[in-house]
């Protein structure tokens, strides 16, 4: 009798898990087919996006939008001053910070702040370990992408940094949504595999909703899928692929159920591994800038 009850309970839990997994994916699909509703912490990133859509948007206008969110202001000033590179003049106003970093970098700061705040939200306390690992992986990928672009290519390092920051945007969003389903909360390993399978396509839709430039979206597309060996980085897609690997992305590939994933040769290529010391330095700077 006890065994039967245990089996019945297990079957019921599995059925609930499947039901909630399907319900979450169905809900996300419905939302992405209409107007995307981002968590409120993305409000500033969306307002910056809207300001940048205006071809006549001036630096003071964009700065005015950013000034409405003190946390973004603080992180933007910190990023600008850390990028001084020997310039002793300390920047204390938003306009000067944007002037030093560039408007695209200001958008990256707003997005990074939103992502950091999302993973620190009350809703994601139940996934604190997953959230912390995801954020660290994103920052390490961003650091690697920036260094690889700067040292080995003519790719814009700021584009590479942004691509690294948001390449797993769909995973952030799915983690936020999964926290609403008890059966998924109880099985974080299931959530990890669910994210691995679906975060790419979901993230692409979110990037379009945020008006991310097409060439950056293209670079993130199927970034976790195995491909032919990259022996040298020629474009942003190559940069992001190798950066993701250097940041531990092989684990994501293994969760795609595409067959056995062998160790990637890029991880032993001295052209890439030789950049790791500088990548660690940039990663530390990003942690200091974007983490509380």
UniProtKB/TrEMBL annotation:
Give every HDOD domain span: 38-226
Pfam families, from UniProt? Answer: HDOD
Concerning PROSITE patterns, the annotation shows:
HDOD
The coiled-coil segments of this chain are none
* PANTHER family named among the record's database cross-references: PTHR33525, RIBONUCLEASE Y
Record's protein name: HDOD domain protein
Tell me which species this is from.
Answer: Amantichitinum ursilacus
The taxonomy runs: Bacteria, Pseudomonadati, Pseudomonadota, Betaproteobacteria, Neisseriales
